[in-house]
Design a protein that fits this description.
Number of helices: 9
CATH class of the largest domain: Mainly Alpha
Strand order of the largest sheet: 1-3-2
Number of domains: 2
Radius of gyration: 19 Å
Largest sheet: 3 strands, antiparallel
Structural class: mainly alpha
Shape: globular
Strand content: under 5%
CATH architecture of the largest domain: Up-down Bundle
Helix content: 55-70%
CATH superfamily of the largest domain: GntR ligand-binding domain-like
Length: 235
């Protein structure tokens, strides 16, 4: 007798966490915002029990805290959060990028490059729209996520995903990934992809570090760093 097997259903708590992530990505939840448990329940479309189970995880990850007499507060963006989040990006992504450069196929790199070129083309040929910005964010983070996952280390991937939510909150607070920055950010990625295509580990690390430091400085409202000596913009 054949017995059909089915994957175990995703727990309500896991679904609530995924919904919370999507609210950050969609900018529905804002840094520093106060929200009640019931409001969070309605926003996530989840039962109160799942939301109550979710809160300790969000608090442990620094994405939310309970404030007596006021309720729940989404992570407040301050100097320490900005510096710590971008320093963690440097630590996590440098090794991942070198590993990625050695393992990614030419075909996949060509597809990644083309996705970036398409965003730049659209940004230059038509007015910027919410859809274009959303697509650009997916292309941007898609490359970083893919590099991290190449390490094959679930703990590192999880740390990266949590930190990426912090970075998204930072960008919401500082407008460091606004429409005006879309083309420069994509061109930085293309400059980095050029090093990946050449399988040059030194250039890969230098260009990735420069890209992350540029994002860090944008978040702080500082002047961008000079290009490395062997730097060459593709834009």
């Amino acid at each position: 007798m054949n017995i059909a097997t089915h994957p175990a259903p995703t727990s309500l708590r896991a679904q609530a966490y995924e919904n919370f992530q999507q609210q950050i990505v969609a900018a529905t939840i804002r840094p520093g915002q106060f929200i009640s448990q019931r409001e969070l329940m309605q926003l996530l479309g989840m039962p109160l029990g799942a939301v109550r189970e979710l809160i300790p995880r969000l608090e442990a990850e620094g994405l939310l805290k309970t404030v007596p007499q006021r309720g729940l507060q989404i992570a407040h963006v301050d100097l320490a959060l900005v510096n710590n989040a971008f320093q963690l990006r440097q630590v996590l992504e440098r090794e991942a990028a070198v590993r990625f450069a050695a393992s990614v196929s030419d075909r996949d790199l060509a597809a990644i490059e083309q996705a970036h070129l398409d965003i730049v083309r659209r940004a230059r040929s038509s007015p910027l729209s919410d859809q274009l910005l959303d697509d650009a964010h997916r292309v941007d983070w898609g490359l970083h996520d893919l590099m991290i996952d190449t390490l094959g280390n679930g703990l590192i991937s999880e740390a990266h995903r949590i930190n990426s939510l912090r970075v998204r909150l930072i960008r919401l607070e500082t407008s460091s990934h606004s429409a005006l920055m879309l083309i420069p950010a994509m061109e930085e990625h293309l400059w980095f992809i050029d090093a990946l295509k050449r399988r040059d580990p030194q250039a890969v690390v230098e260009r990735l570090s420069h890209h992350i430091e540029s994002s860090h400085r944008r978040a702080l409202g500082l002047a961008l760093p000079d290009l490395p000596r062997n730097g060459r913009s593709t834009g």
